[in-house]
Amino acid sequence: MSAPEQCRIIFRHIDEPGYSNDLACYVRHGGYEILKKSVAMKPEAIVDEVKKSGLRGRGGAGFGCGLKWSLLDRKSGKPVYLIVNADESEPGTFKDRYIIHQDPHQLLEGIMITCFANNVKLAYIYIRGEFPHGARILEKAIAEARAANFVGPNILGTAYGCEIYIHRGAGAYICGEETGLIESLEGKRPNPRIKPPYFPAVLGLYQCPTIVNNVETLCHVKHIADMGGEAFSKIGTPGNTGTRILCVSGHVQHPGYYEFEVGKITMGQLLNDVCGGPLPGRKFKAVIPGGSSAKILKFGERFKGKRKVGAEMVDYDWGVEDVPMDFDSLGMIGTMGGSGGVIVMDDSVNMVEALANINAFYAHESCGQCTPCREGSLWMKKITSRMVHGTARTEDAALLKSVADQIPGRTICAFGEACSWPTQSFLAKFGDEFKQYPETKKAAKPAGALELV
Amino acid sequence: MIQPAKPDLVTVNIDGKEIAVPKGTNVIEAARLVGVDVPHYCYHPKLSIVGNCRMCLVEMGLPAVDPATKAPVIDPATGKQKVNWIPRPQIGCGTNASPGLHIRTTSPMVKDCREGVMEFLLINHPLDCPICDQAGECKLQEQSTGYGRGYSRFIEQKNVKPKRTALGPRVMLDDERCILCARCVRFAKEIAKDDVLGFIDRGSYSTLTCYPGKKLENNYSLNTVDICPVGALTSTDFRFKMRVWFLKQTDSIDTESSVGANTVVWSREGQIYRITPRRNDAVNDTWMADSGRVLFKQVTSLDRLTASGSIDALVARAADLLKQGSVAIVGSGRSSVEEQFLTKKLAATFGATVSLVSRVGQGDRFLVSADKNPNLRGALVTGLISALPAPKLTELAAQIDAGKIKTVVTVNEDLTAAGLTASHLAKVSVIFVGTHRVPTIAIAKVVIPSLTVFEKNGTFVNQQFRLQKFAKAVPGPVGATDDLIILAKLAGLAVTDVAAVWKLLAAEVPALGTMSYANLPDTGLLLDATPWAALPFAEGATLHYQPAAAATA
């Protein structure tokens, strides 16, 4: 079975020759028409369409977008804020930056529709500090949109007005966690907040009800407002609607970003047919399907169980290649769709060294607020980097697993899971490689092997 | 089955024990009420909740109800309502009691969580215990013994951080010992309203520090040392002086102002090493000012008065002067209630006039009030005075000028500082009962050395008209006598201790009629303030206190 065609909705104009990121080009391609249509609708109707669409958040957790909006505390009388999470920092993920760089007005239109639907008068785009160019593009785009009356007071002649501001981060992964992001936006250290009581929908930015949505999610809102929730829900598979941008990196012939209907393509089709398969003379060894915090999959392992297809329960027996790339299927086999960052490793990779790399990242990015993540992430990093650069012990495998097991579910935010899942899954699937590593190290390195940092 | 509780109470089940607690009580406090310890570091009852230490993770569950009918789901095996346990552990500090909440603090999951957190807290913690001032009162020591695994699996290099950072003049920071609970940060921001502390760097390298150009030098800085659960913050005054397990704790009262913060005096072998606050939710919560913590230094100061002769000889010389009549007494708002009562008896014996020294200064609106007399209210309650003292002793000066006074008895008050000039003092004989060398003693005919507040028993009445007792922490120096005995002897009374004075007090002072020193509660007793409500007291609002005038206005 060959791979389905890409279904480019969000990325329709990405890399299109002649397409530029200015307003004139966007309007020439039908831009802001949907906003014009939306402000003539009732806001509740737009929210209903988004609920009908079944859109799930593209930031990582896959939380229902319509549900998130419906949790907003609208009775408090406080203003409602929208925060666009453009702190795209998950290793292996590079979808939002292309939207921001090449099609910023698509994002702005999605933001304005979302704001109108939820009666938001002020929206912030929190963009990671490492995107200075993206921030400048967005600033310019907002200025253009404001001049054209798409953003600002009384948009398009209506009584409704909404401002959008850019806020640049200062280079911290944890600012992508929504409550950490809110703290950062308030000018504080981005220590994630405890939930309860600080659910953003109730006590978010400045203790007001707040929506935090990913860049890609908000772009989808634009298309839902265009085609209607019902039509959108027919794209993809039930429960996993719409399209998904998959960012493939690592050991494939053609790494890059690809937009497919969710669940219509399997891992094998993606890697072999779309990305051209492994590099010459190599074999796929492992793949992380949803950004570096997602649990790793090992080529050759089988996943068996029952899953719901329509109203029936059907047996499945999948290899890694057979897994459909959607939230639920990846969840069923013990990993996650996450942010869509597919990281491929072939047989040239030593898993201990790969984990050392990932652990170094998470130890560096732990905010340091709560104990298990703060101490556990650095401890795991110290163990793996000692194994690589110092003396590796056979018992380190068991120790690593035990340390990792003490973290998830016990922290303030999901970083606890993010930093421990790689270690847990690497150990579960490649435990032998860790136990044998002291021996492996004694053997000479293959010629041309990269020096590890 | 959980019984319905009163409307403002919710019933929770902790390790099988049911208890009704007020709404808003968190799980740590609720557990405390049934005698279950939920270990914690970052949680402090008087600070906001951040939930960052993760030590108080417990298992929680709610009674199962049928989603459709809302009827309780009964477990057929036990006949009781089923409990839906939450699969992930929850923090006790951040979870308030809700009706029917079930808590497990002894399950394998909770044990594993605590062992994990303890291990994480210890891997980068230095093995400083043998030289650490916190040893003996360290939560990390206590809880690693109580809830830790008891062995180490950590073979990597520990993080290295600064060992001696002076955060301010009185607080020293050892960053390696810090467990990043942020209690001090929250205290500075929320209680002291002096937001100078914060963390720099991130992850396990996070380091506590002052903001650039700022210092932790407010008058409440030492409270951060008290609430630091480990030895990261130490007092520059106390550090390396004494192991805490050698110290005896004596309940006392801060005498620097009429707030009357409750304190503990820590002493060993007759020497005081430090003063810390004692929790009293009606007076000072768990805080006290830095300025009140150094007052014990007066005990051993070089200008302390002692007498070489016997007390009876001194009393006899004083009695000779008193017998001549025309006596004026300068009482003190720093004397205890008992001493003020005896001062009043002394005045009655010799038909003396009584004045009191006013001591009004600046308050800080928190735990130091404008009235620096700790016991002005006591003088009113005992009837030593009936109106507030004048700023200076002008009335007494006029009487001396008019030749009406021959002898002045002063109870630890410096008459020159209180407004009497050398020419006034030259016209009278002065009997000085006091603790320290002050200018007045140069012209005093009789000097009778007495004791400081740390060396005797007694009570004070604070600005709220709360009667609070203090106890003797250390013996007084040789050659100094308890003020009670001095005053009793001068007045010709046969009392020798506080209990005996209280028999007289109860009989003669209606407001204290039913009480005795022994059964006064540790947190004090609020007296009826209405007889004095109209007096223009100097205090402004402080913690847990509104001036009566402001309250009625």
The number of helices of chain B is: 13
Number of strands of chain B: 22
Structural class of chain A: alpha/beta
Name of the CATH homologous superfamily of the largest domain in chain A: NADH-ubiquinone oxidoreductase 51kDa subunit
Oligomerization? heterodimer
Report how far the terminal alpha carbons of chain A are from each other.
Answer: 41 Å
Which features would summarize this protein structure in a list?
heterodimer, A: 453 residues, alpha/beta, Rossmann fold, Ubiquitin-like (UB roll), de novo design (two linked rop proteins), 3 domains, 18 helices, 40% helix, 15% strand, B: 553 residues, alpha+beta, Alpha-Beta Plaits, 6-stranded mixed beta sheet, 13 helices, elongated
Textual characterization of the structure:
By secondary structure, chain A is of the alpha/beta class. Chain A folds into three domains: about 25-235, NADH-ubiquinone oxidoreductase 51kDa subunit (Rossmann fold, 3-Layer(aba) Sandwich); about 240-345, Roll (Ubiquitin-like (UB roll)); about 350-440, de novo design (two linked rop proteins), CATH 1.20.1440.230. Chain A has 18 helices and 13 strands. Chain A has helices at about 25-30, 35-40, 45-55, 65-70, 95-100, 105-115, 130-145, 180-185, 200-205, 215-225, 230-235, 265-275, 325-330, 350-365, 370-390, 395-405, 415-435, 435-440; strands at about 80-85, 120-125, 165-170, 210-215, 235, 240, 245-250, 255-260, 285-290, 295-300, 300-310, 310-320, 340-345. In chain A, a hairpin with a 2-residue loop joins strand 5 and strand 6 (about 240). Chain A is globular. In chain B, the strands form six sheets. In chain B, strands 1, 2, 3, 4, 5 and 6 form a six-stranded mixed beta sheet that branches. The longest helix of chain B has 16 residues, at about 110-125. Chain B folds into three domains: about 10-105, Ubiquitin-like (UB roll), CATH 3.10.20; about 130-245, 2-Layer Sandwich (Alpha-Beta Plaits); about 310-550, Rossmann fold (3-Layer(aba) Sandwich). In chain B, a hairpin with a 2-residue loop joins strand 13 and strand 14 (about 270-275). In chain B, helix 7 packs parallel to helix 11. The mean pLDDT of chain B is about 95. With about 550 residues, chain B is α+β, with helices and mostly antiparallel strands. The interface of A and B includes residues 367, 370, 376 and 407 of A.
